[in-house]
Amino acid sequence: MKPRTQLRFLSIALFALWGRAGAETLPPFFVSPALLGPAPTPAAAPAVSDPAPAVVSDKQALKPAPTPAAATSRPAAKAADKPVSPARVSRGVPVAVAPAPVQALKPGTTVITGDKVSGLQDVDAVAEGAAELRRDNTRVEGDKLHYFELTDEVEATGNVKVTRGGDRMSGPHMRMKVEEQVGTFDSPEYVISRPGRPAPPGQILLPGQSVPRAQQPLTGHGSAESLELEGENQFRFLNGTWTSCKPERPDWYIRANELQLDYDREVGEAKGGTLVFKGLPLGYLPWADFPLSEARRSGVLSPTFGTSNKVGVDLSVPYYFNLAPNYDDTLTLRYMGLRGLQMRNETRYVTPTYRGITYLEYLPNDQVEQRSRYAGTIRHDHNFGDGWAGNINFAGISDPKYFTDLSTRLTLTSTVNIPRQASLTYGGGGWWNASAMLQSFQTLPDTLTGVRSEPYKRLPQLTLNALRPELPGGTTFHLASEFVSFSHPTQTEGRRLTLYPQLSLPLQTSAFYVTPKIGVHATRYDIDYRGTPTGDTGQSRSLPIFSVDSGVTFERDTSFGGRDYIQTLEPRVYYLYVPYTDQSKIPNFDSGFYDFNFAQIFAENVYTGGDRISNANQVTTALQSRLIDPNTGAETVRAALGQRYYLVDQRVALADGAPMRTGKQADLLAAFSATFMPKFQFDTAWQYNPRDNWTERFNVGVRFQPAYARAVSVSWRYKHNYSTDPKSPDGFRDLDISGQWPLWGNLYGVARYNRNLRDHRLTQGIAGIEYNAGCWVFRGVVQQLVTTSTDVNRSFFFQLEFNGAGSIGSSPLTMLKRNVPGYGKINEGSTPYVGSDDDEF
């Protein structure tokens, strides 16, 4: 069905009566001067007041009329008058066609205006002089328009402009079908814009952070020799250009013999193209596609190029498979000049009940090592429903040097134990839950010492935990139980069963709490000794454990720096009693020392695992004070001081002959943190050994982040050195400085300086610059990373990123986000893919 056409005309004078006596007179007109404004008056017609448009429906013919002999004016009609009959309009009189009120237009109505309008009913209409055609959100302007009603086509010549939504095109000549948006446009210049994604609920932007690029309208513009309109959202340009830069500054653009923009699939395709940057062709593109939005799509992603002293020239070409909205796959070919061709594959998936990632990289022939090398990981989390859930985390590499040779990540080069485990949990019991796990590791030699220490495998580990609060008398029952079978290729193996039932009585008010607790830690061992047995194959241990935890919170109103705060004073006292039991005959499968901190000094045991339980008769005291903003509840200042006091000496050691504590005081802990402004944070912590009168550990850090992509962090760390080497300096000292900051204009600097002050060695160094030109970004970064005690990895990253069309070079973004606290991508705030770069193995 053709769209309904409506032609509206304005005459500046009443139409004349002509012909013989008794001729028919014209009906009155509707007057709408507010819509029309002043209209030109033809020289041949007498002036009249309040000219009004004649409304002609799409069923009324525009018939030629005889030349007028005289002109007679008639009064204007009132708003309450009935609709008028068709008017005969002389072609010789200039006619301006004005729109009816918006509420009078139905969807699909065509409105044509111009200085002159003529035509035949149901055939065509011609508008000349400031001619315009409008239908819904489509607008066509030109010096002359010819509309063909039968085919719904419009032909425009002279200063043609077409506007449809966010699309604008201009040129000397155009012909198209209005509704179907099919036609041709000669020598067009164009701007095509599409809205970005809506902001997710609860999105908060940092000061200075722009709206993420995925949420910004994506606008492309350019010019062409000709344009083929192939339907709504379909554009084909011949000898055309496209860029996302501003029209007045097209720093880069794609120039192609044939350029197709498909906004339904949100993909652009160039054939016989060239990428031009600053007037310099960067490369010939026989065929290439590029994204027209931030949506995921299948295709070749931007290649990355870099270099390092470990792999030489480093070129990666990824192909992305958008298999479904909730899973994808990326296949990458990586060429390393010194080592050869490597293949990578990464698969990611997310559903309401499970999610995971599979990553594999394989180097068939390392030309340096003369062998094949690989690395891979499988991670899967599954919610089976009804309280059941499972997890798989399996990883492995071909050889101990794999990470130091082929990775640029400090966390990977220092990896010693690579996990391999699977678990199944049940939490549908309400007050109880259970789990089963199989766990082993691939153990690598330490990168600095070369020592290889393999932990025990757990094949399997079974746990059952229960918690029942509000039992009779206000008591709470808690049960922690476990069965583990420990396996090791060279050391003593065994099985351990642990039951730890506990009863507590929480007594709590708004100001204080007291919680006494008593429990019995019972353990049974079945041991398989290697070599000569050092004890019975069956060992058991039962220890009663008693504790009382108490605390008080005092509050008062105060002011600081002209602002009101709530100040708290929170003392805490914790008493613990555990009798001594000889545990020297029990093998140590998984026990070690906890890190000494504020959480650990209130723990029941100084050892991890379940093979060693230290005797205890001790009191722990701590005092904490905070300043809290009463309006927001935000914590501005926190200061804490804590220490443990021993009433008996330590008698349980990790292994025979290991040193044991004899002093009455544990290390003193102190911490202070403050947010003086939302932009400035300060943290420090101190661990002091009162027995030997020295500092065990000390660190202090300052971070200043006034806005997005503006951050500076400085930290200094010290740890006491227990080395017996007299030439070894006393204590490990580490200085870490990092930051991202605008240097001038849109030029940013980014750096990290992490130095081992004791050994006078740079652990990690990063230096780079970034330049944001609006529609393109340049990044150049150099990284030096210590991989072993005698070796370093130097990497170079150079990237040109073209907004809306990918990038060339090697991307340093993942490395910068991991190693520079507060780093912000200066031209974007989100990623369009299912996972993130942090998923990389």
From TrEMBL:
Signal sequence extent: 1-23
Residues spanning the membrane: none
Region (Disordered): 58-88
Compartment(s): Cell outer membrane
Keyword set, alphabetical order: Cell outer membrane, Membrane, Signal
Subunit-level organization: Component of the lipopolysaccharide transport and assembly complex. Interacts with LptE and LptA.
Sequence similarity: Belongs to the LptD family.
Record's protein name: LPS-assembly protein LptD
